[in-house]
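Quick bug: DUF4190 domain-containing protein output formatted oddly.
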Amino acid sequence: MSEPYPPPAAAPSNDRTTLWGVLGIVIGLICCWPLGLVFAYLSFRDARRAGRQPTLAYIAFVCCAIGIVWNIVYAFRR
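Here's what came back:
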């Protein structure tokens, strides 16, 4: 008796979850936290639509929070 065929490979998805998440992390920490929040939200939304875990979105939200705290501390130290 022959073994059954393995399941077919999943079709490549067209979502941009990873792109939005990485952009949210980098932009949220380095230059502009409001724009980082937008990218984090886009990553979260796309991950939910694609049925994936929104881990990068959560990390991007945390990086934006760090950026906000950093800007507040910097503003009061001047």
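Actually, after a second look the formatting is fine. The chain has one domain: 17-77. Closing.
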